[in-house]
Amino acid sequence: MNSSLQDIIKKIVASDKIIIHRHANPDPDALGSQSGLAESIKFSFPDKKVKIVGSPVGDLTWINQPEEVADDFYQDALVIVTDTADTPRVSDQRFNTGNYLIKIDHHPNDDAYGDMYYVDTTASSCSEIIVDLVNASNGQLKLNTEAARVLYAGIIGDTGRFLYSDTSQHTFEVAAQLVGHGFSHSDVSQNLNEISLNQAKLQSVVYDKLIFDGNGAAHIVITRQMLADLNVKDDQVNSVVSTPGRLREVLLWSLFVEKEDGTYRVHFRSKGPVINEIAKAHHGGGHPLASGANAADTKEIDQIIAELISAGKAYQDSTN
What are the record keywords, sorted (predicted)? Predict the structure, then answer.
């Protein structure tokens, strides 16, 4: 059963040591919710020891960077995992070694892990939930400028700067509350908007080599050689995931990014057809319109493409 925000607040207030995790290959919402919660706790309770951990953050260091945490720090610690639907995706598997574990998330709760969890799939982002947590605390948790900045980054990252359909009136109200803390929201937007020249060249390759499969479905396979030729690092590929969606002819799409071991990271996006069930069938998951998965080889890629085409056709048949 979903716990209440008040239950989580009580655990935070009662804990002297708190370690906050998020998912691997972090996006702005993973980092924003993680560091926004950490900053709020540290600002509100200066005597508490609060750490954030996880894998490298690529070109998102302007949001936060992980800290070194010794194994023994987990003893008697409260561990909170933000923006992470299932345990295999948690960055740093020591999340399981603390005294108490809380999950805070906005993805479908297919993996209800933790001693306590709070999941709100109607929220635009996990960062939005963290603001709700602060607001529900009756002043026990507070926001400072830094917490507001990174939480705002998380919200506009997961809403595509308020483009996506899960952006609600409440999302705008929360964003306005955060902007009221005095950071430069234009700087945050600019940081999210900027890409390197090599990333821009990769976007050009995506447009040039995108394959249209019928019924509004499209895909591209990005190989190790393509990344090497353009001098683009793995953690910089996220900048092109939304690129096909700018095309009027594209309804749903997938990017297959070859990893060093020869398998593929799969990025799914959609303007209407539900695609997270496809992701779940291929060792992944996520939101109905934005998900990730994995493909072992080109045979599995072909299978995913067929499923994508089928989903597009079913959606068009149902809306015509």
Answer: Hydrolase
Whole-model pTM above 0.85?
Answer: yes
Q: Which CATH architecture has domain 198-319?
A: Roll (3.10)
Fold category of 5-193 in CATH: inorganic pyrophosphatase (n-terminal core) (3.90.1640)
CA distance 24 to 222: 20
Rounded to whole angstroms, how far apart are CA atoms 22 and 51?
12
Listed in sequence order, the residues at least 6 apart from 143 whose beta carbon sits closer than 8 Å to its beta carbon are: 40, 43, 131, 134, 151, 178, 181
Number of residues written out for the chain = 320
- Specify the residue for token string 């690092």: 233
pLDDT digit string, tens, across residues 134-146: 999 999 999 999 9
Tokens of 129: 């939930």
Q: Where are the domains of the chain?
A: 5-193, 198-319
Q: Which residue has the tokens 């709700």?
A: 132
202, burial (CB in 10 Å: exposed 0-12, middle 13-18, buried 19+)? buried
